[in-house]
Design brief:
By secondary structure, the protein is an all-alpha fold. It has a domain at 89-255. It has nine helices and no strands. The chain has helices spanning 17-32, 37-66, 86-115, 144-162, 166-185, 196-204, 214-219, 229-232, 243-246. The longest helix has 30 residues, at 37-66. The mean pLDDT is 90. Bound molecules: zinc ion (ZN) (2 copies). One zinc ion is lined by residues 128, 134, 184, 198, 202.
Length: 255
């Protein structure tokens, strides 16, 4: 098979600036698939079609289910509203939960990082950090302003934006509360989400401000964490053997 993917994408205009721009992006993509035409043809095509279908499909579905934004309704063909089978409602609830997770990550990361600003840290957030080795119920041990601004707001914002059903909201609050209890518990148990990142935040103060770690990655507020033993252990594990046995502490280093 000829190595089609390595051919220039536009034979006719190989000298223009636009060509270099698209060609360099294409080359990086080809590298990402190990310059393997078969892998890119099947794997890449699957990822592309899946992403386009579900991204656009989910946007339409959100409009269908929430009826928002309301200006969309005047473009609707039929007066009848579709009757969703229960599985479609369940799927919608899962999509809403995914949205809440993302909203919380954004709202918690930036509010938490603001609370670490040296000008205000000692007035509000210092109280939560009295626990350098946290235990579960210290998850909401904090100043009341912090509780409203950084704990409750990121939690309620998602259901508020989508006007979610109370049952979906309650499922979300349950998951989020369980997650923050785990994060502060000091125990990294099998099957549960990893508390390593937030535990490291309590230990070192100046990294890991987020919940998922996406914004920490983006802003580089996880540089030392990523070099630490805690980072190696920062995953869900499925054996009864403690994860610190799998990644033991080095004898001459504390991290
Ligand atoms: Zn903090
Ligand atoms: Zn904490």
């Amino acid at each position: 098979m000829s190595d089609d993917i390595s051919q220039p994408i536009d034979m006719l205009s190989t000298t223009t600036g636009a060509h270099y721009y698209w060609q360099s992006h294409w080359d990086r993509l080809v590298d990402l698939f190990g310059r393997n035409e078969f892998c890119m043809g099947f794997g890449g095509t699957f990822i592309l079609t899946f992403t386009v279908y579900w991204t656009v499909g989910i946007v339409y579905t959100i409009v269908d289910v929430t009826g928002k934004p309301s200006f969309m309704l005047k473009y609707k063909i039929q007066e009848l509203t579709p009757a969703y089978p229960i599985s479609a409602k369940l799927l919608m609830a899962i999509i809403e939960l995914a949205f809440f997770v993302i909203v919380e990550e954004i709202a918690f990361y930036y509010s938490h990082r603001l609370l670490h600003n040296p000008k205000i840290y000692k007035y509000i957030h210092k109280r939560h950090h009295e626990w350098q080795t946290p235990i579960a119920i210290t998850a909401i041990y904090c100043h009341p302003i912090e509780h409203i601004f950084s704990n409750l707001l990121p939690l309620f914002l998602g259901p508020f934006i989508l006007g979610s059903h109370l049952s979906t909201s309650w499922a979300w609050y349950t998951l989020a509360i369980m997650n923050t209890l785990t994060d502060h518990s000091g125990y990294h148990l099998p099957l549960l989400t990893s508390p390593e990142a937030h535990d490291y935040h309590h230990l070192k103060f100046n990294e890991n401000y987020g919940v998922l770690g996406i914004l920490d990655r983006l802003h580089g507020t996880d540089t030392n964490f990523r070099k630490s033993k805690a980072f190696q252990r920062h995953r869900v594990f499925y054996s009864l053997r403690p994860i610190k046995d799998l990644y033991p502490d080095e004898t001459n280093k504390s991290d």
